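User: Can you predict the 3D structure for this chain?
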Amino acid sequence: MEKHPEKLPSDMWWVIMYVVAPAVDEINITFVKLQSRSLLVAQQAELVNALTSTLTTMIYIEVINSD
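Assistant: Here is the predicted structure, written as C-alpha cells:
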C-alpha cells in the first residue's frame, strides 16, 4: 500500500466537504424521520417544509415567487 497515493482529494475538495457537511446532516436527519411508519402525510409535509427552511437559512437562498 502506498503511503502517498497520487489521486488524493485536493485541499479545495476538503473545504467544500466541510461546508456541505452540515446541510447533508440535516437532510439525513430528516430522511430518517420521514421513514417512520406512524407519520401522517401532513407531518411528512411539515418535516419537508422545515428542512427547506433550514437549508434555505444555512446557505442563504432567497426564495422569489415566479408568479
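The two ends are 58 Å apart (CA to CA). The mean pLDDT is 89.
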